[in-house]
Amino acid sequence: MQAASARWIAGALVLTSAVWLVALAGLLALADRVHDDVPALLAVKLPLLQSRPELVFAGESRTLYQVDANLAAQLIGRPQGAVVNIAYDAGEPLALLAAMRRQPDRFQKAHVVVSVVPFLFNEGVRSAAVYPQDVAARLGVVEQMMSFLPWRVGTLIRFIREAFNARLAADQHLAELAPVPAAFGSKIIDHTQSGDRWPAEIGTHAHYANALCDMVALARRLTVVVPPWAPRYDRARDPSWRERDDQYVALIGDAGRRCGFDVLNIQSIPGLEQANYADEMHVNASGVPIYTRYLVSRLSR
How many domains does one find in the chain? Predict the structure, then answer.
């Protein structure tokens, strides 16, 4: 009796797992079909381009939370709206490229400044929070499941959710009709966040050099920024990340020389101390004007 019960339970578990995998595969296939390279988080910021800005800051969270677009406009002697910040959390170059292709007239006379980070350039970090959604969309269902199951199922769930959100944003034409974001797209982190624990290995396959190259013809000028880490992030104690960091910086530099865009690899900023950082990557409110002034000064050279 016990053996029969065990076999029944095992069979039920196998059947349940099979049904779950088939359902997940179906959802992934549907997400692949509806996916749009411009995510909802970027779409709702694109109305900022209606002012025909001269300087467009884009990229990921180290631009979103660190660049004050209004201050940048003052620093270059231009009116409000001449500088905007369309960066968003975990922003990826493929998404920006898609936006530039759809609204070429909004970018062709602008200086586009885009920030990048290593884990968006590399397949090794597979966590749901940071894995590039446009890269996931290019994998196909089988490769998605092989790459992320069983331990990274959250990454697949996020991809499904974001794919439907992006499609809804596209169908609702949020890139044209959404309310213009406050503060010209800039945000701040007003508290200290807990320290991150970096993975021991972040992989070896780099993405996006071609996407950056394709942006060159779509803007008046393209600058790719590698922002600094906080002083408490000691590269000497983290050889794996130091090596990968150097690799992706070298990749960007090579692409810049080949394709004709500028690269700013900012290792440190005078006056930007640990007290001005909210975590290993992002400055807090006190660091925003320091970072913005330094970045604008470098762009003006």
Answer: 1
